[in-house]
Amino acid sequence: MARRRQLYEGKAKVLFEGPEPGTLVQYFKDDATAFNNQKKDVITGKGVLNNRMSEYLMERVGQIGIPTHFIKRLNMREQLVREVEIIPLEVVVRNVAAGQISQRLGIAEGTQLPRSIVEYYLKADELGDPLLAEEHVTAFGWATPQELDEILSYALRINDFLTGLFLGIGLKLIDFKLEFGRYWEEEEMRIVLADELSPDNMRLWDAQTDEKMDKDRFRRDMGGVREAYQEVARRLGILPEEVQAEAAAEMGQAPKSVH
Fold first, then answer.
1. Residue 34 has what pLDDT?
2. At the topology level of CATH, where does 6-84+225-251 sit?
């Protein structure tokens, strides 16, 4: 499609004005970042894989009644989404101890949590995305109590659904990050899932070996990031041979898998 005016560039995606009012084009980059942009690299083809996986997962989540900003995938790197007012929260759902919660509370990585835990972080790279209590969120007006209740309900429903979906393909959903936005439809405001769903914003471990199949491979210099993402897509059944060949052509190499 013809290139449109750029509205915003984030660490992993670029937003352009959409073809119709109230729409945006979301472009997936190959850039990889970690630790609030302190570590950076380019992983060729990552954007192609994340675009495809996010399309699939957003559609599946939509099928269980969770409203999302996703409209359709346009090409290998772009998708059409609804324009929403982003709520400045990162909503993290944790099932197994890993990353920050292990460091913060001294819980060994891999420990099954007593129940799924939902945490809120302020979207503010300059502050290091600080952890918030619900009181902070409502007192400072980042979301109303009613909005927060809806966000919590959606987050737990998404967790239940994705946990089962991934377990069915031999993956454990350790934790993941969600972002939500406000969308107005005929004067009525709705909370909708925004951003993306991909191994960039979730931890996925192989159910048998606990091999990491997500961005921790980049954070921890483990290598094989692209191959791990390809394997997740393959298990999801969204990387058939012809699509894999197209992606490999853009990546400039033959597709590979990790096991």
1. 83
2. Phosphorylase Kinase; domain 1 (3.30.200)
